[in-house]
UniProtKB/TrEMBL annotation, chain B:
<dbReference type="InterPro" id="IPR000515">
    <property type="entry name" value="MetI-like"/>
</dbReference>
<feature type="transmembrane region" description="Helical">
    <location>
        <begin position="283"/>
        <end position="303"/>
    </location>
</feature>
<feature type="transmembrane region" description="Helical">
    <location>
        <begin position="53"/>
        <end position="74"/>
    </location>
</feature>
<dbReference type="Pfam" id="PF00528">
    <property type="entry name" value="BPD_transp_1"/>
</dbReference>
<dbReference type="Pfam" id="PF12911">
    <property type="entry name" value="OppC_N"/>
</dbReference>
<feature type="domain" description="ABC transmembrane type-1">
    <location>
        <begin position="114"/>
        <end position="304"/>
    </location>
</feature>
<dbReference type="GO" id="GO:0005886">
    <property type="term" value="C:plasma membrane"/>
</dbReference>
<feature type="transmembrane region" description="Helical">
    <location>
        <begin position="116"/>
        <end position="141"/>
    </location>
</feature>
<keyword id="KW-0813">Transport</keyword>
<dbReference type="InterPro" id="IPR025966">
    <property type="entry name" value="OppC_N"/>
</dbReference>
<feature type="transmembrane region" description="Helical">
    <location>
        <begin position="227"/>
        <end position="247"/>
    </location>
</feature>
<keyword id="KW-1133">Transmembrane helix</keyword>
<protein>
    <submittedName>
        <fullName>Dipeptide transport system permease protein</fullName>
    </submittedName>
</protein>
<keyword id="KW-0472">Membrane</keyword>
<keyword id="KW-0812">Transmembrane</keyword>
<feature type="transmembrane region" description="Helical">
    <location>
        <begin position="179"/>
        <end position="196"/>
    </location>
</feature>
<dbReference type="InterPro" id="IPR035906">
    <property type="entry name" value="MetI-like_sf"/>
</dbReference>
Length: 299, 317
């Protein structure tokens, strides 16, 4: 975990100093003394290794310094303003995707090769195939412009959340539904399910109490990948729906070569992602008692 | 010949020999082949052909490939040519898919975008294939410490959020087609390497590899001739599933303004350009690129699923 983070941090730094152009290069030439002073202010005149150490220090102390392009704001300001919005969008999306995906998968598995199965899987394949930005624009076009029943953009009330969340959740939902279906079909053929059925349990109870836990393992396994996808998906969705989240600052900072902001957001994103991957691993260990995080004793 | 009395229980000693008779062994019948022998690939092809959706996907992709080559030549308009008085023409006789905000012909740009998308997808899959197969093959075959170190490297790469790396690379190297492909493959081969390693690890313990080794075959030849052909199934499936991911990533990056730059056309660029126009009802500017991105990804996905079923040796009848 720490190694991965360190690699990202270093990689970001190396890439950053190799980018041609500096944040202080304005179209109008600045006075040389002013330029030198500015560079000194942001430590851009130090040798690279000093910059690197300063940069590591800023990460360890979680203080990314001021933004170069908007000097009145620090990177931490931007993060603390943008992150809650992006986090809310991401969390609601994950909840929607997981719940609807699992439900769809179970329904399809229970009616294996029936109409519901084909319907659910058609939705799933479509969900995987249509990119989220296309879906988002189609939603705006139909629900906001044509029907006029939902707001087209921004982030103010739960009603504003519907379109972006559905657009972002469809892809992960489709993947979860397909996985749940295939493992559920397999689990349902096993002996202990037959036993439960013989006891006279209702199909719903069998699924919820007995089959679900075992068929969720693959879903947990790919949660990490899905999280990363949703995270990057928020860039696009935030752009289309004009949501004031972190994605906006990230893309802007890249286009403006605003080093502190690029580094801050990249490191923050990566750390967040790596941390959630770690949580997924732990959840995996709790759900499946056969997996132990570390070898215990000599069994 | 006296028949056995079913109500009685016989002990083996009581059973007279003439109750049994020798059946002539028919060598020819035993050797006869009851159905035409099919190679692995013929068999897989036969099964794939029965999967209607996968075949529809395959046919769509073939047609798309043909149109990507000849499409731009079919129309008198060029990709970049702007014609402002002609902007936002709905689909008609001259402009089959209409024109966009700068009066450019959407038909030409759509097929040009198909070229870009297919090229990015196929190149990404090919590079992933070469790097992943070599890396995974060595790692799985050598085993032990080499494998351990190589897998640690993969684990670290796997933890990198790949689109962040891609975006950073694009910023440094500047947006171009080569950069996109490079950026996509720099972390993309990891999945392929994992699959190949897993397969090789399993197959290298089979007897036919041992036999080959005992003849003194060189490692390189064993990997190439014995191991790889037997891992081709999962590799091909992985490649078909890499293509839509790469196509999506290209469209995604172009959409964010980090990929192919206007005036050149890619489906992502076209979708991005049409964002403003769609609100005022110019549906065709978004419809055609969006339709083709979605359908191409759909086709590759169903083809991949079909291949997965067709190439699975366990399902062979």
């Amino acid at each position: 975990m720490a190694v991965t983070l360190w690699i990202i941090v270093t990689l970001t730094f190396v890439l950053m100093i190799t980018i041609p152009g500096s944040p202080l290069n304005e179209e109008r030439g600045t006075n040389e003394v002013v330029q030198a002073n500015l560079e000194a202010h942001y430590n851009l005149d130090e040798p690279y290794y000093i910059q690197y150490l300063l940069y590591l220090k800023s990460i360890v102390t979680l203080d990314f310094g001021p933004s170069i392009k908007q000097p009145t704001e620090t990177v931490n300001d931007l993060l603390s303003r943008g992150f809650p919005v992006s986090f809310e969008l991401g969390m609601v999306t994950i909840l929607v995707a997981v719940i609807s995906g699992i439900l769809l998968g179970i329904l399809a598995a229970l009616r294996h090769n029936g109409i519901i199965d084909y319907l659910a899987m058609s939705i799933a394949v479509l969900g995987i195939s249509i990119p989220n930005f296309v879906l988002a624009t189609i939603f705006i076009q139909s629900f906001a412009v044509y029907l006029g029943i939902l707001p087209a953009a921004t982030w103010a009330s739960p009603r504003h959340m519907i379109l972006p969340v559905v657009a972002l959740a469809t892809g992960p939902m489709a993947i979860i539904a397909r996985l749940t279906r295939s493992t559920m079909i397999e689990v349902l053929t096993q002996d202990y399910i037959k036993m439960a059925r013989a006891k006279g349990l209702s199909p719903w109870k069998i699924v919820v109490k007995h089959a679900l836990k075992n068929s969720l393992m693959p879903v947990v396994t790919i949660m990490g990948t899905l999280l990363a996808g949703i995270l990057t998906g928020t860039f696009v969705i935030e752009k289309i729906y004009a949501i004031p989240g972190m994605g906006k600052y990230f893309i802007e900072s890249i286009n403006q070569r605003d080093y502190p902001v690029i580094m801050g957001t990249t490191v923050f994103y990566s750390a967040f992602l790596i941390f959630t991957l770690f949580l997924v691993d732990i959840a995996y260990g709790i759900l499946d008692p056969r997996i132990k995080m570390h070898k215990k004793g000599g069994e | 010949m006296k028949l056995a009395d079913e109500s009685k229980t016989y002990s083996p000693a009581d059973v007279p020999d003439d109750w049994f008779k020798w059946k002539e062994k028919d060598n020819e019948a035993a050797e006869a082949v009851s159905r035409p022998s099919l190679s692995y690939w013929q068999d897989a092809w036969k099964r794939l052909r029965k999967n209607k959706i996968a075949m529809a996907g395959l046919i769509f992709l073939i047609l798309l490939g043909i149109m990507a080559v000849i499409g731009p030549m079919l129309s008198p308009f060029s990709v970049r040519e702007q014609n402002l008085p002609n902007q936002f023409q709905p689909p008609n006789g001259t402009h089959w898919f209409g024109t966009d905000s700068l009066g450019r012909d959407v038909f030409t740009r759509t097929w040009y975008g198909a070229r870009i998308s297919l090229f990015v997808g196929l190149m990404a899959a090919l590079i992933d294939f070469f790097v992943g197969v070599i890396y995974g093959g060595i790692s799985g075959y050598k085993g032990g410490r080499t494998d351990n170190i190589m897998m640690r490297i993969i684990e670290i790469l796997y933890g990198l959020p790949y689109l962040l790396v891609v975006i950073l690379l694009l910023v440094v190297l500047g947006p171009s087609l080569t950069t996109i492909i490079l950026a996509l493959t720099i972390t993309g081969w990891v999945g392929m390497a994992r699959i190949v390693r897993g397969q090789v690890l399993q197959i290298k313990n089979y007897e036919f590899v041992l036999a080959s080794k005992s003849f003194g075959t060189k490692t390189k030849r064993i990997i190439r001739k014995n191991l790889l052909p037997n891992t081709m199934g999962p590799i091909i499936v992985q490649m078909t599933l890499t293509v839509p991911t790469a196509i999506f990533a290209e469209a995604f990056l172009s959409f964010l303004g980090l990929g192919i730059q206007t005036p050149f056309a890619s489906w992502g660029v076209m979708a991005n350009d049409s964002l403003g126009a769609i609100l005022s009802g110019k549906w065709w500017t978004l419809f055609f690129p969006a339709f083709f991105i979605s359908f191409t990804m759909f086709a590759f996905n169903v083809l991949g699923d079909g291949l997965q079923d067709a190439l699975d040796p366990k399902l062979r009848k």
